[in-house]
């Protein structure tokens, strides 16, 4: 075989071998590598989406937890509302109960006088100035009795003075308030 023909023949067979390898590599890339890369990219995208959903779910869970805590706090805030601002606005009834509890505790020299109301939005604060005397134990008993009245009250001023000497007597000056709704 002539040398030129041999060189072409070698060249042709080399090209055929290279073409075969190229076809194998191309087939591997097209049928093996590309689907694998596409699957990998799809899985990475799905992972990002799931992570975003998990973060959103965690945020929503935190929001629900916060709202739940706020609802619990609000329920605690308003649980005594019917006792604090009852439908019954009869001040005479409350003053009668207050007087009864002062007497039952053994407090003496008692005076109670109404002070001007203070408007607080849709409610009014109705303060009463109380001056009374008794032992510390009697005063303590009175405070416990007031806590158990059907209508809640609050103390905005309290001054307790012990008498001179060993009598154990105290003089109490306090402002006790109840609350009432009013129509605007």
Descriptive account of the structure:
By secondary structure, this protein is an alpha+beta fold. It has two domains: 1-79; 83-181, Alpha-Beta Plaits (2-Layer Sandwich), CATH 3.30.70.60. Helix content is 58%, strand content 24%. It is built from four helices and five strands. It has helices at residues 3-78, 81-84, 91-105, 136-147; strands spanning 108-114, 118-120, 123-135, 154-162, 169-181. Strands 1, 2, 3, 4 and 5 form a five-stranded antiparallel β-sheet that branches. β2 (118-120) and β3 (123-135) form a beta hairpin. α3 (91-105) runs antiparallel to α4. The chain starts with a helix and ends with a strand. 9% of the residues are buried.
Q: How many DSSP helices?
A: 4
Order of helices and strands: HHHEEEHEE
- Which segments are poorly predicted (pLDDT under 50) over 5 or more consecutive residues? none
Number of domains: 2
**Average pLDDT across residues?**
84
Query: Radius of gyration, Cα only, in angstroms?
Result: 44 Å
Number of strands: 5
